[in-house]
UniProtKB/TrEMBL annotation:
It comes from the Bacteria. The lineage of its organism: Bacteria, Bacillati, Actinomycetota, Actinomycetes, Propionibacteriales. Gene3D superfamilies: Winged helix-like DNA-binding domain superfamily/Winged helix DNA-binding domain. This is HTH deoR-type domain-containing protein. The keyword Transcription regulation applies. The keyword Lyase does not apply. Signal peptide: none annotated. InterPro entries: DeoR_HTH, HTH_11, WH-like_DNA-bd_sf, WH_DNA-bd_sf. GO terms for molecular function: DNA-binding transcription factor activity. Residues 27-81 form the HTH deoR-type domain. SMART domains: HTH_DEOR.
Amino acid sequence: MTRTPRRRKPRPAHPADPRTLARQLARQQEVLHVLLAQRGEPLAVDALAERLGVSERTVERDLERLRAARLPLRGRGGTGGGVWLDVSRARQPLRLDDDQVMALVLALDFLDADLPERLVQTREQLRNLLDEPSLF
């Protein structure tokens, strides 16, 4: 008896791939912008997925990563539920020392292949924070 070979699902791009990371970062930044625009009002995950043009599972993974990064995301199930950014905690000032700023700039340089314009601008703002921008 002949067995038909199983079709393998294509493997997702390796997470260390700079282009994949750049797309993920850009999408996560877009998630944050959408949630900030909601001003603390819940937004259903399916509505967020539709707005971003991705699956609900992709949005859920992005939200997991943002929570792991300690962003003040909140969620509630059921009718009228969804996810929101706790804006009362979201506007606390970010304090970074020069080493942390430099690490962020270097990470963005590493991902430079396909950085969206918003991240390119962020990188330039970070560079301007350093005392010696000539290092770059």
